[in-house]
Amino acid sequence: MSTVIYPSPIFGPVHSRRLGVSLGINLLPADGKVCTFDCIYCECGFNADHRPTKRMPNRQEVAQALEERLKDMQQNGPTPDVLTFAGNGEPTANPEFPAIIEDTLRLRDRYFPNAKVSVLSNSTMVHKPDVHAALMRVDNNILKLDTVDPIYINKVDRPTGHYNVGDIIAHLRAFEGHVIIQTMFLCGPGVDNTGEAYVAPWLEAVKSIGPQQVMIYTIDRETPDRTLQKAPREVLDAICRRVEDAGIPCQASY
Fold first, then answer.
1. Separation CA 134–CA 98 (nearest Å)
2. Rounded to a whole number, what is the distance in angstroms from the first to the last CA of the chain?
3. Residue 147: which of 223, 201, 79, 88 has the closest Cα?
């Protein structure tokens, strides 16, 4: 099974389907995965298959590596569209995440002031005041909400700790619009969140959150569960139109 384990703390730049030329910032160990979800569609594989032996990078290491890479990109290219916190798991699980955001914004302003700072998060740490405050400062606060159905969440996203979707939705509302909702739609044996029973309540939750944008997407790389299938383009387009009809910008990636 092919999986992707990213270098740490800096990787890329890569071309993102949703964000453009993206310089990756990985706050997790370079030799394994640390995540509060264990998604069956994660390109990094299952948590148990990639237990790290190295530690997470600290604030100083991230800032030093990021500045070196930004200096090189300023001299030799390419120009990044975005600095993206992603990688081998959940970026907000790094205990120095708020301070690292502060450093990243400072370095972004110095070297590439037109670049956006994005965070891809599964929303499990947004109840923490310091994480919430840090996410309010970034340009693209991209937070996951795959469904509002607890059974589906436990089958597909597989939280490793306590997870109450009602509480998560309340915390997403607390961003008062400074949030982009990210949702994975997929199909497979016993797994399919593209039907009306899933889409309608999810859309109501999205409307209650009032995000600045919604990003819907489907699998693009090999997944640890090999039975999963891409959601059809026409299905994603139809969901996207429903979001837009609710007055919320929506972007679909196939």
1. 5
2. 22
3. 201
Residue pair 98/130 in contact by the 8 Å Cβ criterion? yes
b or e along 8-40 (b: 16 or more beta carbons within 10 Å of the residue's beta carbon)?
bbbbbbeebebbebbbbbbbbbbebbbbbbbbb
pLDDT in tens, 36-57: 999 999 999 999 999 999 999 9
Residue for token pair 């965070």: 119
Residue 33, helix vs strand vs coil: coil
C-alpha–C-alpha distance, residues 23 and 117, integer Å: 10
C-alpha angle 178/206/248, rounded to 5°?
A: 70
**Alpha helices, H only, the chain:** 59-76, 97-111, 129-137, 150-152, 165-173, 196-209, 233-245
Token pair, residue 48, equals 């148990």
Report the predicted TM-score, pTM, of the whole model to 2 decimal places: 0.96
77 vs 48: CA distance, rounded Å: 38
Distances from the Cα of 225 to the Cα of 50, 184, 188, 220, 231, angstroms: 15, 15, 10, 13, 15
Give the containing element (helix H, strand E) for 114.
Answer: none
